[in-house]
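--- STAGE predict ---
source: upstream dedup step, 1 unique chain passed
mode: sequence only
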Amino acid sequence: MNENLTVLVPEIALLGAAVIGLLTGSWLPRRRQWAVAVLAAAACVAGLAATAFTMATDREQTVFSHAFAVDTATDVGRLVVLAALLLVIGMSVEPVRGHRRETEYWVLLLMTGAGTLALIGANDLLMLFAAYLLASVPAYTLAGFAKDAPGTEAALKYYLMGALLGTTMLAGTAVLFAAGHATLYRELPAALPAAPYGLVAVGLVGVLAGLLFKAGAVPAHFWVPDVTDGALAPVAAYVTTLPKIGGLIAGYRLLHQALSGSDVNRPLLLAILAAATMTLGNLAAFFQTSVKRLLAYSAISQVGYLLMALAVATRTDLAQKSLLFYLAAYAVTNLGAFAVVTELPRARTLDDYRGLARRRPGLVAVLVVCLLGLVGTPPTGVFLGKLEIFSATVDGGYTWLAALAVANTVASLFYYLRWLAPLFTSTDRAPVTTHTVLGRWAAATAYTAATLSLLLGVAGEAVLGLADGPLLP
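--- STAGE serialize ---
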């Protein structure tokens, strides 16, 4: 048994900071609880440094009886999650500063972040479900952190959907264990081909239900718009970004490693889910007036594009690097848009942004980069990510799905332009108070995220090289 704890430094750093932060915050006066935020940021930086060291030493391995894999997907996923978590921390500083539960906010953020990292490296069905719980339970609490009516409703819907689909996931795990007599991914491919087809299919659908909930994909998407609209803006940014990274990488590993030998038609199932998700997300976003709900449905549509990589996971070598790069590009671009929403707390509808270009040109520049980036406009990272994932889909034999994705991409331009157009029009109908800014941290986060989105587009080839490596069995 390999019990090398040094390869788990990113996960241990987040969990250790959560424990230390909770104990420290219990003794700190309210005006000094910002120290826990510094501790959270330091844990993320430590995790990034440890991941960079692991990638440099090129030591791919599994630990703890092969239950957790440290390979290319894990390392790139860690980099994306920890960098995104730093951005979420940055945009959270002003909204929670001085709050009587400020320490709890940072601790919950660290714990759900650690759960996301555990999802990324899970190489065993039981480990996968444990990671699902660790990523989910703190996030339910964060959704209702404001303790107002919208936040309470958001938390309740999030919890109920998570409990239902988590139970379904556990049942699917039990069915796959009955079919394959194992929970380790490396042992399942040998046993599942001889198992009854229906048993494997039911187990796969059950486990995928939980992962689709984390990603916010159809048919497990109903919580996304309500939670995004009801939660604090930084929490909304979190739930539309980081759980997707964990859920989709975990799903890719499961399909690629554990179910590669099964006769169940996984590609067609994922292709149908991808088509339904991107189309429903785009159609629902067309006539939204709330900026948070628009971004929520945008997040659903983006999952549809990302699911295309899972549909061709075992059909092409391009699937893994396209998925990892797209996740990185989407994370920084989506967080940049939410950072602007956080910076303008009184601007809740599209019309509230009217005339913003004259008063806040910097924030408008960020919105232009991020919203057009979400469409897939060059030279942003999402453009290259979509190009890669569309190429992987065609290479995997699903040309019709790639064509549908292109059509959805063109259609999505409509609702992003509905937000961008008022930025440059007359301010006669928009009160100046809606353009009141929150502070410097959210603005700095917005500028950083937009810059990263552009850098990923310009230097994308170098980043794609990091995402091209083997998965461990």
